[in-house]
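Internal ticket - ligand job 207, iron/sulfur cluster:
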Amino acid sequence: MTDDERMVANRKARHDKKEAYLRAIYDRNLARFRATAGQNAIAVAHETHAAMDAVIRQDQLKDPASAGIRCGKGCSHCCHESVAIWPHEAALLIEAVHKAGRELDRARLERQSVFTVENWRQQGLADRACVFLGADGSCTVYEFRPDVCRKLLVVTDPALCDTTHQQPDSVGRWFSWEAELMESAALEVFGASLMPQAVLAALRAKD
Ligand code: SF4
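stdout (C-alpha cells):
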C-alpha cells in the first residue's frame, strides 16, 4: 500500500468510526423517545428539555470554544425565524401561557400558519416574530422554550443574526452533535411542524 492509499484508508476508517458513533447516539435517542408512547405529553416535553440542557451543559464543559457563545437576553433575531417543534412542546407552551394568565395572539398565529420555511421571511418583521417573544425582546416562556431554541447558540457578533440585513451564512454557531441528534430523533418520533401550526393544532385540541 502506498502512503497515499494508507492516508485514504485511515481517513475512511476515522469517518466510519465517527459515523457509527453518531448513529449510535441517534438510535439511542430514537429508542428513548419511542418508549415514551402513551406517556403524558407535557411530562415528556419537560424531561426531554432537561435532557437537552444536560447534554448542552456537558458538551460546553468539554469544549473551550463554548466560552465564545454570545447569545443573551433581549437578543431576539433568531425569534423572527421559522422554528420547527414537536406537538408535546406545543402543549407545554400553551400550558405555560395559560398558567401565567396570558393570552396568545391567535390572529398572528393564524397569519403565520400559512407560511413555510421557504417563504417565512416574506412576512413583515413584526409578523415574523414568535408569538412568545416579549415586547422587550426576551422570551416570555424561557423556562419552557422548545429544544430548537435551547440548542441554537452563536459565537459570532449577535448583529450578524439579523437576517433582514445580513447573510445567514455569516453566523457562526457553537454546535453539540449530541444535542442535534437528540432533537432530530425527537422530531422524527414525535413529528415536526412549524411553531404556528403546532401551537394552533394544540389550541384546537383544547377548544
Ligand atoms: S419560544 Fe422563546 S426563544 Fe423560542 S423562538 Fe419563541 S420567543 Fe424565541
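Auto-summary: The pocket of iron/sulfur cluster is lined by residues 79, 83, 130, 132-133, 139, 141, 145-146, 149 (CB under 6 Å). The chain has eight helices and four strands.
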